[in-house]
Specification:
The protein folds into three domains: about 170 residues, Thiamin diphosphate (ThDP)-binding fold, Pyr/PP domains (Rossmann fold), CATH 3.40.50; about 160 residues, 3-Layer(aba) Sandwich (Rossmann fold); about 200 residues, Thiamin diphosphate (ThDP)-binding fold, Pyr/PP domains (Rossmann fold, 3-Layer(aba) Sandwich). It has 21 helices and 20 strands. Helix 1 crosses helix 2, helix 1 runs parallel beside helix 6 and helix 18 runs parallel beside helix 21.
Length: about 550
């Protein structure tokens, strides 16, 4: 019998997760981490082991958990095929700045480096994708390295950590100290930086605040919104960061990123002070690095970010503040700086433009996607989780659905297909009293549709809305722009989505006319369990801004003019 002070590596690992508030993990089981699975069995009344149907979906669920809770999303997979499948979720967590820890069961320490069955050098594979990747080769170091993993995943700019766990390390007995609660930390601004920030604001004639992704809290969100209102500064969300401000706030005027409306583009171009709060100045935000001159913008730039490496990476700021958003917001929440310059832009006028932009106009076909989104915008509770992956359908989701509560947008910044379904399942499991709605194109949906079985098994109740136009719409759009009328490999042969969903025991409905949607949605909400609603839409509905035929005509005319 082992000494009572001793525990197996797997037992200590599970202790550490529970001590840090982890109440649910996501996995596809593998023989390489049976020692950990047995430890989960012992504590199954304290932490739920969610058995998923593909490692990519499990990793997406973990990434969504990290985004929703602020605690690391935990995923367990096996080596080789499990790790490679799960890598997509690690990539999402890194780009989205969300805490996540992927545990990969590995061959025994004695077999490492011998090309053992399904062996991959996990730290080498994940080094470019994760904040930190490590293999634990000594069981005695589990307490040290697990604590470090939680610190790395949650501190500074949050992100993913990958831990390779050899089979024998999970079974080996160690003298187990009490598992420690990790307390994340983030840098804070200095008083001179806040003073400099105020001086720049006081002199600016056309300042603009742009909101990014990481280290926000609900309180920080409200503090920054109030600061903007006190100083009459328009607020713009960067791509897929709309939930960082109440979209009904009078100072919120739109989004900078894919599908940026002309009035927002003009606002940013003409600004004399850009205040970038936790924004990664990526290809999307900068329109392929063409929107701003570099290394120095024409606008004055205040860049606040929790990752020191992001500051001045491409664009050199006039004021760089290495700080988490909660820490920065706390420093400015009671500040009202003197405004010495007349603002040249009307925030109320911009708000009117935003309201017009988010009011749908026409849509080809019998199902008007914009009208359905606008109806949902009025119908859904404010705390509804809205998830999506990638595809042209997201232009309607991101344009016509407003976010009014912090943390409700589950949409990867990298626009990754297949994310929406598992993210909504994770949201419904974690917050069963709240609604979770996943939007997916027909191509995006089938990337992880198999995890409808996971939703059914664990009693989740998300609503999946599949926007079916029979094509990979985003790729078709880019094809027609670059090579009009020469489309190839973007048409899809779909299953009967109703029969497919019903085979999983999921409630299923098909909508072929706009007027049918409201009744169908209410029926889906009323029924227990997960539901799928298929919207049969026209291929002509390629974008809220233009039809497919209009796009082809423009592209052909542009070619003729060359």
């Amino acid at each position: 019998m082992p000494d009572e002070t001793q525990k197996s590596g797997g037992q200590y690992l599970v202790d550490h997760l529970i001590a840090n508030g982890i109440d649910r993990i996501f996995s596809v089981p593998g023989e390489s981490f049976l020692g950990s699975m047995d430890a989960f069995y012992e504590r199954s009344n304290e932490i739920q082991f969610v058995n998923c149907r593909q490692e990519g979906g499990a990793a997406f669920m973990a990434a969504a958990y990290g985004r929703m809770t602020g605690r690391p999303g935990i995923c367990f997979v096996t080596r080789g095929p499990g790790a490679t499948n799960a890598s997509i979720g690690v990539h999402v967590a890194k780009q989205d700045s969300v805490p996540m820890i992927l545990f990969v069961g590995q061959v025994s320490v004695s077999s490492t480096g011998r090309d053992a069955f399904q062996e991959i050098d996990i730290p080498a594979m994940f080094k470019p994708l994760a904040k930190w990747a490590v293999q634990i080769d000594e069981a005695e170091r589990l307490p040290e390295l697990l604590s470090r993993a939680f610190k790395v995943a949650t501190s500074g700019r949050p992100g993913p950590v990958v831990i390779s766990l050899p089979e024998d390390i999970q079974r080996e007995l160690i003298e187990a100290p009490a598992a420690m609660l990790n307390v994340p930390f983030a840098p804070s601004p200095s008083p001179p930086q806040i003073e400099h920030f105020g001086a720049l604001i006081s002199k600016a004639k056309q300042p603009v605040i742009v909101l990014g992704s990481s280290t926000w809290t609900a309180e920080a969100r409200d503090q920054i919104a109030a600061f903007a209102q006190r100083h009459d500064i328009p607020v713009v969300a960067s791509f897929r960061c709309q939930d960082k401000i109440d979209n009904d706030h009078p100072n919120y005027v739109g989004v900078l990123g894919v599908g940026t409306p002309p009035f927002i583009s003009k606002l940013v171009d003409e600004a004399d002070l850009l205040i970038m709060l936790s924004v990664e100045l990526s290809e999307i935000v900068t329109e392929g690095f063409t929107k701003f001159s570099h290394p120095k913008m024409q606008q004055q730039l205040v860049h606040v970010h929790p990752d020191e490496d992001e500051l001045g990476r491409i664009y050199q700021p006039d004021l760089a503040i290495h700080s988490g958003m909660a820490e920065f917001a706390a420093q400015v929440t009671d500040k009202t700086f003197e405004i010495k310059a007349d603002h040249t832009t009307s925030t109320s006028g911009l708000r009117q433009n935003f309201e017009a932009f988010t009011t749908p106009s026409t849509c080809p076909g019998d199902v008007h996607i914009g009208e359905i989104m606008s109806w949902l915008d009025q119908r859904l509770p404010k705390d509804t989780f809205l998830s999506c992956g990638a595809g042209n359908y997201t232009h309607w989701v991101l344009r016509f659905l407003k976010h009014r509560q912090f943390g409700t947008q589950l949409a990867p910044l990298g626009a990754v297909m297949g994310y929406g379904v598992p993210a909504a399942i994770a949201a419904s499991l974690q917050y069963p009293d709240r609604m979770a709605v996943a939007f997916a194109g027909d191509g995006c949906f089938l990337m992880n549709a198999q995890d409808m079985a996971t939703a059914k098994k664990y009693g989740a109740q998300p609503i999946f809305i599949v926007i079916n136009n029979g094509i990979y719409g985003s790729i078709r759009m880019h094809q027609e722009r670059a090579f009009p009328t020469r489309n190839i490999a973007t048409d899809l042969e779909n299953p009967d989505f109703i029969a497919y969903a019903e085979a999983f025991g999921v409630n299923a409905f098909r909508v072929t006319k706009t007027a049918e949607f409201a009744e169908v949605f209410e029926e889906a909400v009323a029924k227990p369990g997960p539901s799928l609603i298929e919207l049969v839409v026209s291929q002509e509905a390629i974008s809220p801004a233009f039809t497919l035929s209009e796009l082809i005509e423009r592209s052909l005319n542009a070619q003729k003019e060359k």
